[in-house]
């Protein structure tokens, strides 16, 4: 058997082993560009070889170009073909039922945002191999994701971009993280509504805000600390470490985390995650989170 995981197949280096990997990534995440596929594929692949494999899949009509006329063809996205007659061929390549619907229910109004979320979801699953990342457009389907977010009647904008779920260290239950890719500042009212949702009206164990624009992370941090955290009884025992804020490049092919908590202390993601995995919700205290870095700021790959 070659299957291990959608993005890390053992057989990727075998002849034609890359085609199933590409199709699985497109099936799971929706439209992706060469840039996004390059960032997510393991083992790493040369751009030239990736282009060759994509061309073969395109000629077989298993994938199609998406918005290929945007920016004069400089930003081509690919997706699994929408022609159902080719879906049995896709299923044969990736080992799924031939009647599978290979069209994720995504709204491609912002393809760059969708791809950025896909790259980060892939990055978090690599950091925490026992976890699974549920994308925004998938949250309505798994009952567990809906229950964790208490999202049954929520409008779409209150759903996180990524919900990361991992079994706890005790083996009993699991922890969940809401992860948002925040590319621009929203109104105070909208932002506070989202902050309250995660803090007061969900069962998530932590939140990570990935911010690109200067000042967005600081603004989120201030609104949370002043307007939400003091009244968030559910998480006030570890309120300073319930939410983390990243400010840096969101679009790198090699994502790095530069995290601070609500008390503006640097945080190492692995230490923070281990505390969440070790302590039950009612046992968590800000003092439990030995997450700060000594010395100068650092970027984190792990």
Defining traits:
33% helix; 302 residues; disordered N terminus; alpha+beta; 3-stranded antiparallel β-sheet
Mean pLDDT: 86
Structural class: alpha+beta
- Which strand-content bin applies to the residues? 5-15%
Give the SSE string: HEHHEEHHEHEEHEHEEEH
Any idea what the radius of gyration is? 20 Å
Distance between the termini: 30 Å
Number of strands: 10
Tally the helices. Answer: 9
| Uncertain regions spanning at least 5 consecutive residues | 1-15, 294-302
Question: Could you explain how this protein is built, in words?
Answer:
- The protein is of the alpha+beta class and 302 residues long.
- The strands form two sheets. The chain has a seven-stranded mixed sheet with strand order 4-5-6-7-8-9-10, sandwiched between helices. It has a three-stranded antiparallel sheet with strand order 1-3-2, with helices on both faces.
- α2 packs parallel to α5 (111-127) and α7 (188-200) crosses α8.
- β7, α8 and β8 form a beta-alpha-beta unit.
- The protein contains nine helices and ten strands.
- Mean pLDDT is 86; it is low at 1-15 and 294-302.
- It is 33% helix and 15% strand.
- The chain has helices at 18-29, 34-40, 47-59, 87-94, 111-127, 143-149, 188-200, 216-228, 269-278; strands at 32-33, 63-66, 77-80, 132-135, 162-167, 174-182, 206-211, 243-247, 259-261, 266-267.
- The two termini are 30 Å apart.
Question: What secondary-structure arrangement, pairings included, does this model have?
Answer:
Elements (H helix, E strand, L loop, with lengths): L17 H12 L2 E2 H7 L6 H13 L3 E4 L10 E4 L6 H8 L16 H17 L4 E4 L7 H7 L12 E6 L6 E9 L5 H13 L5 E6 L4 H13 L14 E5 L11 E3 L4 E2 L1 H10 L24
Helix pairs in contact: 2-5, 7-8
């Amino acid at each position: 058997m070659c299957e291990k995981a959608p993005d890390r197949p053992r057989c990727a280096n075998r002849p034609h082993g890359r085609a199933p990997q590409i199709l699985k990534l497109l099936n799971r995440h929706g439209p992706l560009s060469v840039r996004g596929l390059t960032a997510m594929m393991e083992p790493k692949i040369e751009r030239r070889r990736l282009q060759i494999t994509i061309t073969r899949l395109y000629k077989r009509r298993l994938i199609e170009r998406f918005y290929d006329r945007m920016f004069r063809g400089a930003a081509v996205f690919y997706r699994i073909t929408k022609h159902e007659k080719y879906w049995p061929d896709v299923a044969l390549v990736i080992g799924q039922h031939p009647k599978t619907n290979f069209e994720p229910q995504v709204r491609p109004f912002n393809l760059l945002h969708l791809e950025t979320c896909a790259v980060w979801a892939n990055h978090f699953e690599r950091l925490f191999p026992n976890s699974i990342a549920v994308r925004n457009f998938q949250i309505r389907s798994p009952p567990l994701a809906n229950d964790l977010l208490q999202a049954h009647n929520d409008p779409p904008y209150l759903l996180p971009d990524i919900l990361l779920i991992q079994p706890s260290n005790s083996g009993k239950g699991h922890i969940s993280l809401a992860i948002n890719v925040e590319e621009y500042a929203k109104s105070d009212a909208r932002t506070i509504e989202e902050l309250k949702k995660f803090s007061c009206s969900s069962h998530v164990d932590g939140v990570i805000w990935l911010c690109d624009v200067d000042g967005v992370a600081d603004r989120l941090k201030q609104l949370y600390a002043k307007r939400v955290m003091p009244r968030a009884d559910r998480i006030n025992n570890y309120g300073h470490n319930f939410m983390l804020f990243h400010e840096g490049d969101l679009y790198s092919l090699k994502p790095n985390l530069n995290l601070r908590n609500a008390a503006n202390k640097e945080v190492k993601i692995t230490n923070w995650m281990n505390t969440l995995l070790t302590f039950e919700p009612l046992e968590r205290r800000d003092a439990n989170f030995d997450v700060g870095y000594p010395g100068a700021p650092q970027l984190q790959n792990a």
